[in-house]
Amino acid sequence: MVLLLTAVAPCVWGTTYFVASELLPPDRPLLAAALRSLPAGVLLVILVRRMPTGGWWWRAGVLGVLNIGVFFALLFIAAYRLPGGVAATIGAVQPLLVAVLASGWIGEKLTPVKLIAGVTGLIGVALLVLQAQARLDLIGVIAALGGAIAMACGVVLTKKWGRPDTLLATTSWQLVAGGLFLTPIALLVEGPPPALTLPNIAGYLYLGVIGTALAYTLWFRGIHLLPASTTALLGLLSPLVATLAGWALLNQTLTPGQLIGATIILGTLILSTLRAPQSTTTNPHPASPQIDSEVKEAR
Asked: Where are the domains of the chain?
């Protein structure tokens, strides 16, 4: 059940490219990142009415900048400057990064199986989404790689530091910290927001409530309860869902290579997650009925 709930997050994130391309105003990546994080975080803070204490003020800030602020900004920059396939393929290096960082920072054993799973998943994503005519933009490539590094560091640090409060509270702190980091940068670089249409508003609401508040609550729950490398591998579901959404909603065709890539991704996830134990790190904060009820209320 933990695996399935955690997998919901990358599946929801797989719809981000469709929503951004079809509903959001063009050429506003930082605005999209800020509006995706800050309103959702403020809403959760109002709901839980809890604030960090002690050292968790700066820890929440660091995690919020890595998991939300830097990651969202670089994710949208890469999405605007690169074809979705190139961005997704570069981002798929994250499971390998998490496996390496987790071995050094939190003592998770770096096994050949984890390395093979990471490489195999990367190959599957490349077959799934990388097209022969894909162009490379240096800034976009750097943004995609930087986003993967930021998220990998955030995943491992989230695992290392544990959870000092309820799941929704710690999620809200990170969303607010990331949003506060993004908002002045967005205003400085992109200027005031444009007039928003109803589709724009619907897109931002979907990304904020479903794609961020709900998805990140489930994602952080999975990070605390599963090995970091297992959680990172579930992120491969995002480009898979993005490709299927394009096929189902935008009438895009699926080539034999894409079908092979999808099969490789699913096979890698099934074989890897079947072997995944529950988290055994030294700083766990196990789920409780209160947390489970919070997740249900968020849904």
From this structure: 2-298
